[in-house]
Amino acid sequence: AQKITQTQPGMFVQEKEAVTLDCTYDTSDPSYGLFWYKQPSSGEMIFLIYQGSYDQQNATEGRYSLNFQKARKSANLVISASQLGDSAMYFCAMREAEGYGGATNKLIFGTGTLLAVQP
Amino acid sequence: DGGITQSPKYLFRKEGQNVTLSCEQNLNHDAMYWYRQDPGQGLRLIYYSQIVNDFQKGDIAEGYSVSREKKESFPLTVTSAQKNPTAFYLCASRPGRLSGANVLTFGAGSRLTVL
Known about the structure:
heterodimer; A: 6-stranded mixed sheet; 4-stranded antiparallel sheet; B: 11 strands
C-alpha cells in the first residue's frame, strides 16, 4: 500500500547551517512523484520541490534540494543556509501513476516534521 | 493575483449542525480537492473533483458532502453525521490532467471547531 513515513517529529537547526529532513516511502507503482511542502503557522501549504521517479538527477530549487535514493525508497529534503523564516512544518507527499496524466492526482502525505531555526 | 480563497477562516459549530466551507479559485484549474488535517497528522483526502459536475470520494468521505456546479467553486459541507469534525480543512486545486503540471496549489485553510 502507498505510504509516506517521516520519522522526525521535530528538529532544531542553527541559522545559516544546512539541515536534512527525512522521508521514506512505500509503493509498488514504478511511476510516482514525490513532493515537499512547507506549512508555516499561518496554515497555508507552500510547494517547495518535486521529484519524479524516472528523473535521473536530484531535484533542486534554490536552497532546497531533494536527496532521492530510489533503491532505499527515500526522498530527503535538504535545506542549505537555514533562515529564521524556514521555521515551519514540512510535509513529504507522494502521488502514484505519474506520467498517466496524474491519474486521480491523489497526494498521500506524511505526518510532517516541525523545523525550528535558532538564531 | 490568482489563487484559492477559503472562507471562513475560523468557524464554530454546535453539535448536530451542518456547516459549509467555501473554496473559490481563479486559477482556471480543472481539478479541486478537500483535505482534512488533524494535530500530529498529515493531510487526508476527503473529496476531489476533476471536472465540473463530477466528484469522487477520498479516503475519509463519510460525514461530508461536496458539489461542483462551477469550475471555480468546490464547497464542502460538514454534516452532523461527521463524528469528529473539529479539524483544519484545506482546499487545493491543480490544472487538468493533460496540462502536464503536477503541483497542487492550496488555500489558507478553514479551522472548524465544534462546541
